[in-house]
Amino acid sequence: MARDKLNKAEVARASGTKADSDAATSSATGRDAFPLLTDLVGPDAVPLFVENLRRGSKPAREWMCGVEFELFGYDTRRDYARLSPAQVQRVLAGFAPSSNDLVYEGRTLIEVNAGQMNRLTVEPGGQIEFSGAPQRKLADVEREIRRYLARLSEIADAHGFVFLAVGFDPLHTIEAQQWFPKSRYDVMRPYLARRGARAWDMMTRTCAVQTNLDYGDEEDLRKKFLVGNRLAPIVAAMFANSPFEHGKPSGYKSTRTAAWLATDPDRTGISPPALTDDFTPERFVRYALDVPMLFAQRDGFYFDGPTGLRFGDFLAHGCPHIQPVFGDWADHLTTLFTDARLKQHIELRSADCGTLEMALALQALWRGLLYDADTLNAALYFAPKLDHTAALELRAAVAREGLAARASGVNVLALAKEMIALASAGLARIAPEEVSYLDGLRAQIVSEGICPADILLRNWHGSWQGFMPRVVEHLRIA
After folding, report:
1. Is the pTM here over 0.85, yes or no?
2. 461: Cβ–Cβ under 8 A, 6 or more apart, which residues?
């Protein structure tokens, strides 16, 4: 799931200005003038949406890496029930350097600025998401995650909580989930329920780890967006870590991936602009204009007036009592849940949550593949170029079989091994000190041909003898 609000830095990026500078109105058309998020817009703003993406371009020396890391919390004193909304807010409050760092919606604490530009937010089922500040080095990413997990462990120990790093809630049914009271989710919940049989599972019972990377010129963006989408199912197989549901094996290596496949097809799976080689920012904007909206936000409140209305139609005609503003476009981009999606950076979203070692390996893998020019070209060459039907077939096979999947002419394990070799070569050229972050991934996949779900299932059927508390112990991260 996406961030709910734009902080000051994000507002500055979205508007193309410094946070404290004067912004132009939406009628401005020059490159150096850009609308405020609150300025009214119409169909003539479409070139500004394209320009907004182009303004995300950065020189290679400024490319950074950001991680997003979602965890499930449980109360050991209530038979491992998912944390209640009140308990989740108690956890968030424990990270605030001061009261000024708490963000409320009405009386509900929904976000914390956790220091060093790190943020904590809440997903629909009370999953807690750590959004790390972009860093130039993986060692700095690691330091911030470790600091977060250390503090989370202190809070968990004090309250009898535990946090699991896993892609899908292994313990509880959808009926037992604790919905977090955000107005955004109140609007999304009924609409998505009509768009996919497992949409509520996706909202409340999944956790991911995500990599956010920068791009350079338009050609660099094209290559990264294509590779990020086309290799997403291979990454999903490599990091599959959710083989349980309702306290027993689910029949999937990644139950999380299976849930996403049964969620709103308008906004999930491979991003349609990545199906062909001629990707441009204009093509991405045309695709996004055709996706139905989930909500409109005004002054922190979420409204369902435009829900289900294609963004392009909303832009042309508005809806009763709500006229489009530039910020609606920024919000709309956060509701595109494709495997790789585009804002003013690229978000790579296909991996189940897992251990700290695996989370860092994911960052290293994508950095090695996308940040070295030679490796990026090689990755684009071997990334499967599939039509929409074949892309879905590959993802469905990966959800069920993980690295053992073979579908749509793709040998997933063989491709995963090649990706690791390429990423290692790329990192050796741009950041040789980071190659070691791939060691654990190399040991599992290259040496043994297994993913985390294979280890869980091997133990489940072996020494754990189908005892779920051993699964919980293995998955506990705080």
Report:
1. yes
2. none
